[in-house]
Amino acid sequence: xxxxxxxxxxxxxxxxxxxxxxxxxxxxxxxxxxxxxxxxxxxxxxxxxxxxxxxxxxxxxxxxxxxxxxxxxxxxxxxxxxxxxxxxxxxxxxxxxxxxxxxxxxxxxxxxxxxxxxxxxxxxxxxxxxxxxxxxxxxxxxxxxxxxxxxxxxxxxxxxxxxxxxxxxxxxxxxxxxxxxxxxxxxxxxxxxxxxxxxxxxxxxxxxxxxxxxxxxxxxxxxxxxxxxxxxxxxxxxxxxxxxxxxxxxxxxxxxxxxxxxxxxxxxxxxxxxxxxxxxxxxxxxxxxxxxxxxxxxxxxxxxxxxxxxxxxxxxxxxxxxxxxxxxxxxxxxxxxxxxxxxxxxxxxxxxxxxxxxxxxxxxxxxxxxxxxxxxxxxxxxxxxxxxxxxxxxxxxxxxxxxxxxxxxxxxxxxxxxxxxxxxxxxxxxxxxxxxxxxxxxxxxxxxxxxxxxxxxxxxxxxxxxxxxxxxxxxxxxxxxxxxxxxxxxxxxxxxxxxxxxxxxxxxxxxxxxxxxxxxxxxxxxxxxxxxxxxxxxxxxxxxxxxxxxxxxxxxxxxxxxxxxxxxxxxxxxxxxxxxxxxxxxxxxxxxxxxxxxxxxxxxxxxxxxx
Length: 611
Ligand SMILES: [Zn+2]
What we know:
Elements: H1 3-25, H2 34-50, E1 74-76, E2 86-87, H3 90-104, E3 112-118, E4 121-128, E5 131-137, E6 143-145, H4 148-151, H5 166-171, H6 176-188, E7 190-199, H7 201-213, H8 222-230, H9 235-239, E8 243-253, H10 268-277, E9 287-289, H11 292-305, E10 313-320, H12 324-329, E11 331-332, E12 335-336, E13 339-343, E14 348-360, E15 365-377, E16 380-386, H13 390-396, E17 403-407, E18 415-419, E19 444-446, E20 453-455, H14 460-472, H15 484-492, H16 507-511, H17 518-530, H18 536-542, H19 550-563, H20 571-580, H21 583-587, H22 594-607
Parallel strand pairs: 2-13
Antiparallel strand pairs: 1-6, 3-9, 3-10, 4-5, 4-7, 7-8, 10-13, 11-12, 14-15, 14-17, 15-16, 15-20, 17-18, 19-20
Helix pairs in contact: 1-2, 14-15, 18-19, 20-22
The structure holds zinc ion (ZN).
Zinc ion binds at residues 360, 437, 439-440, 442, 455, 457, 460.
C-alpha cells in the first residue's frame, strides 16, 4: 500500500470506527462486535505507524477511554494510567519488536515478562508511609475516581504494606543499597501499586443465580460486574461481591520525587515478586520469556488453560523486562511502546478478501472460494473460506478487495458473515463467474438463475483426482501419508488443480480446512517439502503415462530440458510441451518406438492447455 492508498484507508477506518463508537457510547446501540472494532483500530494504528505524519489529534487511536463520574471525588494520578496497544497474531508481535528496533535504531530483542491479562478494572493504590491512603479508578487515564472506602472491603488488598525481611529482598536479587532505599520508601516514602480488580467466575455465577431467583437483572460479564461493584455508593454492596486484586505495577516516590523506572527495582519480574512480598496476591503463571518464540509458547499454554482459571482473562500482557528501557522507549500516542496486550483471538475477525477462485467438486459443480489476507480467528490463522455459490456472493454483495468479517467456531470451516461496505474505496471489483472450467479448461454450463455452474466434462473431477492420486502414490513419488482422501479435500477446497500445485500449498491454506490442526498441517507440509527436490524425470514418471518407465522418463526429461530453459517447471509446462509434439518427433529419440510414442501422445492429448 502506498501513501495515497494508505491515506484513503486511514480516512475510511477513522470514519467507520467513529460511527460505531458514537452508536455505542452515545446512542447505546452496539452496531459492531467490539472485537472487530479492535481489529480495525489495530489496522489503523499500524497504518499510522507507517505514515506518522498522517496522525491527527482526532484519530480514534489518540482517544483515551473511560470517564469520570460526578458521583465520586476526583483524584489526579501521579503518572497517567495508560492503555495498551493490542496484538492479535505472531506477525503483530514481530512487527511490534521491529518497530521498537527501528525506534531505537538498533536490533532490539529483549527479555519479556509475560503476565496474564485479567479482564477486570484497573486500580491505583497509594500507600504513604506504608499505609493505604487512596484507591482510585483509572478514569480517563489522568484523573480517576476516589473509591477508597469501597476498595478497603477487598480482602486481598492490604491496608498496610507488609514489612519485608532483608533476606527476602536479597532473594529476589536486590543489592544492599537498593534494599536500604526500599525500606526507606516503605517507611517514609510513597509506594503506588497498580493492578486489576477481578471477580471470580464462581462469584459471578452465584450472583447471577441469585439475581435470577430474585427477578433482578443479570450482570453481563465479570468485568462489568466488577465496575458495578466498585462504583457503588454503599460499600456494603462492594463487600458482598468477593472481589480480588492482583498487582501489575509498582511506582516508587519520595515525598518530592517520583523515581525513574529501573531505579531501585531494575526488572519487571522483580517488581512482581516484590508485590508478593509487600502483601499482594500475584499470578504464579507470570513468567520471564527469553524471546518472542518463548512468548508464543507461554501464550499457547495460557490459552489452553484459560477455561480452567478461576477468573476471566483475555490475553497476555507482554512487557519489556528491563525497566530502564521503559523510559527509553516511552509512549506513542496514548499507549506505551514497552508493552503490548497480546489478545486471544475471538471466533470472528476482520480481514481483506484478495481474490475468488473456483473449484470443481465431484459432481462437476463449481464453488467459489475466497482467498483472504491471512488472519487469526478461533485460535488458528486461516487464508481461505468458502462462498458456497453465486447466491451467497449476491446475498453478501461481496467484491474483490472488500474488508470482510470471517467467523470460525470449533472445527467448522471458516465463513464470511459480513462485508464492511463502508470501508470501500471504489476500487473493489465485481466477482466474475468463469467461462471455462478452472480444472480441465472445458466448457461450463450456467443454469437459468445462475446459482450453479457446472463443468460439462463428466470425467473432469475423477480424471484429475486419479492423476494427482497416482502422482503421490507409492509407485510414483510416494508421498507416504498423503492419500486420495486428502487429495480430494484439497481439490474440493481449491488448494490444488494439478499435482504441481501441491508444492505451493501454505500452512494457513491447510488450517482453513475442516479437521486440520497445527500438527497435521505441519506434517503434510514437511512431507511435500521432502519431495520438492524430486527430479524432472521422476515427476514425468510420476504422471503415470502408459509404457513410460523410469528410463523413458529420463529421456523425455532430457528432451524437455533441451527445449525449455527455465529453472522452475510447472507440470502444466510439461503437459503443454508434450501435447504439441507429434509422434514422429518423439520417435526421433533413441529407444522410443511407435507403441511408446502413441501412448505419450494419447496421455498429453487431453492434459495440454485446451483453448
Ligand atoms: Zn472441468
